[in-house]
Design brief:
Largest sheet: 5 strands, mixed
Strand order of the largest sheet: 1-2-5-3-4
CATH topology of the largest domain: Rossmann fold
Shape: elongated
Number of domains: 2
Strand content: 5-15%
Number of strands: 12
Radius of gyration: 28 Å
């Protein structure tokens, strides 16, 4: 009797161990199987599997600059594809990838993603089997099984593990490639229609411009003194004679074209026209293309895309800034911005002059050790919540810049926050609360100028200068018809 009970216990232990080994092996394989890199049209996309779900079908996952977005495509099975954009390098590769003798771009993208998923699935099966054999061997040693029983245990465990593994993801493994082949672009996967082509701006080229600044109210310099004789567009966009674009031109003796406009977003401002009451600003990128010899482009965008001003106002009247409704609103806007930002980066990477591109991150406007805003409803706890949202935006901006081979710049406002003695941020009762002061705009200009110099110097060995080259940031006069910037405050 005792022998029979002992044998039964051993069989039960073997069965339990087999199930446990299978579960652990599949989990480990999904965790460690490397994403398969797919290169197409200058883009590098990782193809792998998202975390398992309890549902039998659902969307896949698109990892775009650190933001995990659900795909518009739905897949069968609890384990579904995950696609991660890791690199954007357009230019000569774009023409080569879309050459006439190759398949159409839409079909090529879907076929490449399907092939990547097939390779990933094959590797996952192999790694699952390896983990199962390793763990089964450890169990056999722990149970002190003889050689013959050990071999039987290894075979049974491997077969059972792969049966569970393949059975669990069988639907995805066999249906995902067919669905991925219909993918025409990563933007389509995120559920946002591609933006129309940026039309050409009227007027002749502007060959003397060396740097172009595009973006929102931070780049426009709103709240600071305006030009003496502004144009209608400069007045409507609230551009300042003390913007960092003007500062950049003065301190470096470059001709800088500032196209920034208050309330500009990527969709309505940079890639598309921006209504401004009685006039409409043309797409900033369209005007920027007229600067045919520009060596650098500086971008400041994102706050208006996310409704940052509305979030600030919401924070002042609610008990907390990280409530469920506010967080859901922000996350939804951040997802939409991420897709638009991807489209902008592709357009910038495809500029024919291949300029240095600088992406400005947003400065930290708060000193959470101070309490000067408590009476306005912005406590240090709320400020920390807002900074967390701002860091999420900056994370997308920096990740996108890195994936595109661009430069991300973070202006340093340390010791000069809103409540500090010499703030770089306009106060809550100023003309443009939370926007940079004159000194803050100058700090941004200095950081951008250094970044541009470093990027140009890094390119020098790869792009040797020539007499006809227009890529050097050579000195040039400031634009005619503009006043000199007013005196700047201390930046110490």
């Amino acid at each position: 009797m005792r022998g029979s009970a002992r044998g039964l216990h051993r069989r039960l232990a073997v069965v339990a161990s087999t199930v446990l080994v299978a579960a652990v092996s599949i989990a480990v394989a999904l965790l460690v199987t490397p994403m398969q890199q797919v290169s197409l049209a200058g883009q590098t996309v990782g193809v792998g599997a998202a975390a398992p779900s309890l549902s039998v079908s659902g969307p896949g996952e698109l990892d775009l600059f650190g933001q995990r977005l659900p795909t518009t495509l739905r897949f069968d099975g609890p384990v579904r594809p995950r696609l991660a954009l890791t690199q954007i390098t357009l230019g000569s590769q774009l023409a080569a990838a879309f050459a006439p003798h190759r398949p159409s771009p839409e079909r090529a993208i879907g076929a490449a993603l399907a092939a990547g998923w097939t390779r990933y699935f094959a590797w996952e099966i192999v790694i699952t089997a390896g983990c199962a054999l390793l763990l089964a061997g450890a169990v056999a040693g722990w149970l002190r099984l003889p050689v013959r029983q050990t071999l039987v245990l290894l075979a049974v465990t491997a077969v059972c593990t792969e049966a569970i593994n393949v059975g669990g993801i069988m639907a995805t493994a066999y249906t995902a490639p067919a669905r991925l082949r219909h993918v025409s672009s990563l933007v389509a996967l995120a559920g946002v229609a591609p933006l129309p082509a940026v039309p050409a701006a009227p007027g002749p080229p502007v060959p003397g411009v060396r740097v172009v600044v595009m973006g929102d109210s931070t780049a426009a310099g709103i709240g600071n003194p305006g030009f003496v004789h502004p144009t209608r567009l400069e007045r409507a966009c609230q551009r300042s004679a003390d913007s960092y674009a003007v500062d950049l031109g003065v301190i470096s003796n470059w001709r800088v074209l500032n196209l920034a406009c208050s309330s500009a977003t990527i969709v309505a401002g940079i890639l598309g026209p921006q209504p401004l009451g009685t006039i409409t600003a043309p797409p900033q990128l369209a005007v920027a293309k007229k600067a045919v010899n520009a060596s650098a482009v500086v971008i400041s965008v994102g706050a208006d895309d996310l409704g940052w001003s509305a979030l600030l106002q919401l924070c002042t009247v609610t008990p907390e800034c990280d409530g469920r409704a506010a967080t859901a609103y922000f996350q939804q806007r951040l997802h939409a911005f991420t897709v638009s930002y991807y489209q902008l980066l592709r357009r910038l990477a495809a500029l024919p002059t291949r300029p240095v591109v600088v992406i400005n991150l947003y400065y930290d406007p708060f000193d959470t050790q101070m309490h000067c805003l408590d009476n306005l409803g912005l406590t240090p706890a709320k400020e920390k919540s807002l900074l967390g949202l701002l860091q999420a935006l900056n994370g997308v901006l920096a990740s996108g810049a890195r994936a595109s081979g661009f430069t991300a710049v973070t202006p340093n406002f340390s010791g000069h926050a809103l409540c500090d003695a010499e703030p770089y941020v306009q106060g809550v009762h100023s003309r443009a609360p939370f926007h940079p002061t004159i000194a803050g705009e100058l700090a941004i200009a200095l950081a951008d100028g250094q970044a541009i110099d470093r990027a140009i110097a890094a390119r020098a060995p790869a792009v040797p200068p020539s007499p006809s080259s227009s890529r050097s940031l050579s000195p040039s006069p400031s634009p005619r018809g503009r006043s000199a910037p007013r005196s700047r405050g201390s930046t110490s």
